Write the structure tokens for this entry.
Amino acid sequence: MLLLISIIYLRYKRKDDGNNGDDENDGKSWDSPIKTFNKALEIANDEDTICLADGVYSGLDNTKLNIDKSVNVVGSLNTTFDASYENYLFLINDGVTVIFKNINFINAYKTDYDIDLIDNYEIEGIYGAALDIKNAAVTLDNCYFKDNMANLAKTGRWLGGNTPLGYKSKKLEKIDIEGKKRSLFMLEAIEEEKHIVVLIFSKYR
């Protein structure tokens, strides 16, 4: 039995030499890289390796994607998936095996509304704004996560990272029914900055 393993090359950001990624390329070398992760997943077969050049991969062609193939995703020195606080990053399911290496996952956000839009997705809770893993095996090698938020944040609970403009994180403590002290963090408005938030919202809503 002959097993063919392919390597697919992505380059999203413009390079000084003009060798940009393009989804019309074949992705078979750094001389003809494709541009988006969505296209790489589309043409990949199980066990393929997707190599990503340095850069920030964002937008709907690089986020809010379902990984349903067994692939290796390998970044370079500074390869980042950035959801820009607008989308989640990846759903990984269907019994696949996925390896991420040298990848940064940042600024992902997911709510129950996102999941409602996904066909045949079993809802067991809203988890994993960066990586939502169900019935899959995922290995992380030298990966970094920052400012990824799931459903709890919309109630005012803060899950960590830099707070939004106009807010600060406030620690609250309470005693649960078993008599144990529990703590959580909530977002609290900063009065001196509220007018800035209102101004920005009025100009860009």
User: Anything to note?
Assistant: The helical segments are 37-43, 112-116, 194-204. Confidence is low (pLDDT under 50) at residues 120-124. The two ends are 58 Å apart (CA to CA).
